[in-house]
Description:
The complex is a heterodimer of chains A (285) and B (277). By secondary structure, chain A is an all-alpha fold. Helix content of chain A is 76%, strand content 0%.
Amino acid sequence: MTDIVEPLPVTRAAAPGRLQAWAQAAVRGFLTHVLPPLVIIGFLLLVWQVLGARPGAALPSPVKVVQDTWELIAHPWYDHGGNDVGIAWQLLASLKRVAYGYSLAVVVGVSLGVLVGQSTWALRGLDPLFQVLRTVPPLAWLPISLAGFRDGHPSAIFVIFITSIWPIIINTSIGIRNIPEDYRNVAKVIRLNGLEYFAKIMLPAAAPFIFSGLRIGVGLSWLAIIAAEMLIGGVGIGFFIWDAWNSSRISDIILALVYVGLVGFALDRVVAFIGRKVTRGTSAA
Amino acid sequence: MSNAYLSLSQVDMAFGDNEVLKGITLDVKRGEYISLIGHSGCGKSTVLNIVAGLLKASSGGVIVDNREVNAPGPDRAVVFQNHSLLPWLTVYQNVEIAVDKIFRGKRTAAERKEWILHNLAMVNMSHALDRLPSQISGGMKQRVGIARALAMEPKVLLLDEPFGALDALTRARLQDEVIRIQSELGNTVLMITHDVDEAVLMSDRVVMMTNGPSATIGQVMDVPLARPRDRIALAEDKVYNHCRQEILSFLYEKQRKVEPISARTSASFAGKEKVAA
């Protein structure tokens, strides 16, 4: 072990050599990371094409899906008024609901998680409630929230909220409970007050746990919104799917599923990315 | 008694029915370097935590600079065994969090910055200010922990086995640096250790603790070696070896770690040999 920091050795290879090495690395990266999913997806599309192109097949083949939905793919932003808007608007409407419900869940969930993590009394009182309520399926909340709010829009937001809050609460409280005694001691020795302790020690120390809760939460909220929108109607990708089903536009449904999957994937990645930025160092220690 | 800077009087500590410490009485002069040595589990760290205010003694009291201690505070800065750096803060920020909290309003931002840099320079960490704890070695982490504690300008510096988790070579270097810093600053230091050489090399007095339960101070030994001390020259030194011998015989003959059932008897025997500080 040395306490002297040595600079990283810089390879002073000739420029063409470096270019070659870079090209090699790029090719290797392509072969190991890009090629396998391409092969599998290509194979599955082929199987689907063969099955879907048979006479009398129930579902359209991929080629047919693209032909049927080309209008939607090419013009995602059209707006003919009412519910007849492009798929980008539908996705945006759903994302907006998720943003409201999820933000609310983050604020309330982290607060409740801190409370339950800090206070044993609150944990004992609330934990049984959490454990039971978190198993209630998202859609089971919809009728009761419709009854309460008497309107589809806030009901959908409430369903998002109530679906995504549980993992946030539970993970936050675990994170708070797992703050090492040493950090608490450091805070005591330098006499941080409650607010300083919360901001400077508790949140950063629990951040890796909080973010894993946030990540699960965002996934659940995207799951819930699609289902909720099918029931409440209006604009939104969930309703778009339901509407397409009612008018037998199976290709539209398939296209929507692809978009829903991609957006869900993107949401997960965004939260994971923010988590990595915020918890730099913490999780590695 | 009157010239004691840090004094513990009749400190008892019990966790439920389990009495850990019994009648710990110790007076430490200003600028003195005291080591507390004993077998693991004897309650050394409990003593330190009581002085730090992190634990509350069941009875008895601790006085630092004529004030009774009953809560943790920066006047008794602790260097924890496992460094306890906050992993999301850089080396600089780990010292800053303490300095900003303690000296906000008393010193300007520029003075505080200067002071942080000064303390990190003192432990030779100026080259890694922007590193995260996960990016530096164990020895460096402990240096930052020491800088953080020194930056609090403590009346008493509490070291809880500060070198315990380090390899032998790093440990020796860090010991030398702590000795140098202490001679420059004249801190009053209370150090927990289970390393006999470390205790003799670094301390003015070595306080030996009996085995628990109901552990107490078994013997206090002066280390009459002139400073600065040179670890290589001392290896041949008669006084040094005598001190070593004394601690070893206390730890391995009088206080040999025995099975828990008979530990109580051995502890009560040792209590009679107690030497007044």
